[in-house]
Amino acid sequence: MKKILLSLIIYLTAIPSFSQEKPKLIIGIVVDQMRFDYIYRFWNEFSENGFKKLVNEGHFYRNCQFGYVPTYTGPGHASIYTGTTPSVHGIVANDWYDKKSGKHIYCAGDGDMHTICNCEENNIDVQSEDGKMSPQHMLTTTFADELKLFNKDSKVFGVSLKDRGAILPAGHSANGAYWMDGEGKWITSSFYMQSLPDYIESINNNNTVEKYLMNTWEVDGKFKHELANQYSQKGGSTIKNTPFGNTILKDLALEIIENESLGQRMHTDVLTISFSSTDYIGHQFGPHAPEIKDTYIRLDNDIAEILETINRKVGYENTVVFITADHGVVSEPSELIERNIPAGYFDQQVMMSELSEYLLNLYSSSILKNDTTNFIINYSNNNLFLNHKYIANNLDISIEEIQKKCATFLLKYKWVKNTYTASQLHENEYSNSFHSLVQRGYNQKRSGDVIVSLQTGWLKTHWESGGTTHGSSYSYDTHVPLIFWGGNIPKGKTDRKVNIRDIAPTISMILGTAYPNGCTGNPLTEITE
Known about the structure:
By secondary structure, this protein is α/β, with parallel strands linked by helices. The chain folds into 2 domains: about 25-330 and about 470-529, Alkaline Phosphatase, subunit A (3-Layer(aba) Sandwich), CATH 3.40.720.10; about 345-465, Gyrase A, domain 2. Helices cover about 35% and strands about 20% of the residues. The strands form 5 sheets. Strands 1, 2, 5, 6, 7, 8, 11, 12, 19, 20 and 21 form an 11-stranded mixed beta sheet that branches. A 4-stranded antiparallel beta sheet has the order 14-15-17-16.
């Protein structure tokens, strides 16, 4: 009998335990427009308690890629939290042309909703459109949605200066999402609630934006920006274009942790934070500007304060934090040209006019030569939309054939690297090439007839007067930092290629929940094993 009991004890202790301790708080931090190399470029200026703490105590993935194009804010945030790409979750851009209605759709727009704020009755500074938002256009769940499906007492909140940066990460089932209106007040949508919590109203009433904008933003010998003057001219939204936009968002995040007792209850909670000022400043000044460096030094201090609050209120051992970016950014073409690196600016309007003229001449025998109806109904986000109805009524030729003609014609421009037809992307499957990046960003219902991929370093003439942007399939846009930090996260670094879509299933595995329902990523074994 003793031998049987001993054998049973040995057997039971050998069985792995599946009742792992779940973290009390998951915090997802997205830094809008953060290139991977910023970690190392600004390393010596960072404190020991912000980015360095995350890298030194956490697990740093140094070869994290987006794995699709376009690399915009809306698709980036959706992909991080759903564990899939625009081809599945449907957020193909920040806004896109809708082939059915002929209108542009905003990724977080919802006309059935209205603004929730503590604005006065006659306050004209808060537009109703500011709150006409929801995650309705995101077709799949986030990891927080899956948590809420079976843990209704878990709380989920999303915050950002941008509505899409708050709404898409928080998902469909969130308790709340807050973003900043045009006057610098925190608002939300009727999708989440019918009135602001008292503590959010209190923050708005204290007019914290004015407090930050009464200062001067300067670095001695580098730049000086008089914020009070900008505030008087443009109002509270001026803060978005300063590093203090990140700081005031950090303040909001800490208030939510405090007032909602996040991570301090029986159930796992989720807070998503998207720092957007880095993007506003990056677009305006470019990645070479001293303003960018100072912005990241100040952001480092904000992150340090978040980590300190977590340690004090929730506990390092009860928390999992991940930090990444929604995309990178290209150097200003003028900076590249100055260093003899191939780059330039192109006129999109001229390109489309010449394509229209080409099509008109090509099919002049089939239609009236003076017919001014456009073959092209829209060109946006490097997607060409053909006028299917017009072509069907006037030409005895397939839409696939015209797609090929357009794709071939556009290759004549030196700033165009590749073109892809909708038929090509729908009928073929690509795995390890730039073609695959385009395909993962292509959604049959929402994308265009021809997708154009630009050469490295080329932007529209809109940016010729200064500033820069993102959206390409190249490493300056797709390579971003990814760090996991928390009590049960193994320290180290990994240089193998991983994808943004791997974050959500990794968090799901930690939580013991189902993957988001459209997930195409894989758990990161360095974190989960």
